[in-house]
Automatic annotation (TrEMBL):
Coiled coil: none
TM segment ranges: 12-36, 48-73, 85-103, 115-138
Keyword Chloroplast appears in the UniProt entry: no
Gene3D superfamilies in the cross-refs: 1.10.1760.20
Keywords: Membrane, Transmembrane, Transmembrane helix
Recorded topology in the membrane: Multi-pass membrane protein
Record's keyword annotation contains Transmembrane helix: yes
Entry-linked SUPFAM superfamilies: Cation efflux protein transmembrane domain-like
Source species taxonomy: Bacteria, Bacillati, Bacillota, Bacilli, Lactobacillales
Localisation: Membrane
Designated name of the protein: Membrane protein
Length: 204
């Protein structure tokens, strides 16, 4: 089997919707990272959520299913323990997990310079999924003061509520996902190559 065939096989494995035993062992840790990071951000009233750090890492290490499940489970657990509305945003976490895995597969997390466009794309995915939820449950707001100030300003200028809500969500996601993407990138690069290969089936 030549190198191209091996690469193609590895890519197929990375995107398989079967969850390997190796990937399954990563999910509880990723959920824990998400949970602690979000509690940390909320307790300090940071202008970001940080609750997708574990999702990023799981997607980068083990692919889309591990990332999507890590995000989904965290939102459910967080919703049952601290913030019930968090459960609704499990849909957003699934989208983030899939997006990060897709970007990782295309080399966006190999160099610092390409992490920023990856963060922007993930922020866009997150905002597109979250905006309808924000409109339905929060009247278009996000619950983060400075983002909601932008929303209020736009609504006062008679901007459509959907556009105002999207702007509110996107500016917050842009900051949050940029911070999280670089944190995940730094952690990922510090992991031994053997550990990365263990989870990714050779796609380190």
């Amino acid at each position: 089997m030549n190198s191209k065939e091996i690469s193609s096989k590895n890519k197929t494995a990375f995107w398989s919707f079967k969850l390997s035993a190796h990937a399954a062992t990563l999910i509880p840790a990723a959920v824990g990272i998400n949970y602690v990071a979000k509690v940390f951000a909320e307790s300090l009233k940071l202008p970001v959520w940080l609750g997708s750090l574990g999702t990023f890492l799981a997607s980068m290490l083990a692919g889309p299913v591990a990332g999507a499940l890590s995000g989904f489970i965290n939102n459910v657990v967080y919703g049952l323990t601290l913030s019930p509305i968090s459960t609704v945003y499990a849909l957003t976490s699934i989208g983030i997990g899939l997006a990060v895995a897709w970007l990782k597969q295309r080399g966006f997390f190999k160099k610092p310079v390409t992490v920023l466009p990856a963060a922007i794309l993930v922020a866009l995915v997150s905002a597109v999924i979250s905006t309808p939820l924000n409109v339905a449950f929060w009247g278009g707001q996000t619950g983060i003061a400075w983002g909601d100030a932008l929303f209020a300003s736009l609504v006062a200028k008679h901007v459509n509520i959907w556009l105002a809500s999207f702007a509110d969500e996107f500016v917050l996601d842009l900051l949050d996902k940029t911070v999280v993407a670089y944190l995940a990138f730094l952690v990922y690069k510090q992991l031994p190559l053997s550990l990365r290969s263990f989870f990714a089936g050779g796609q380190a």
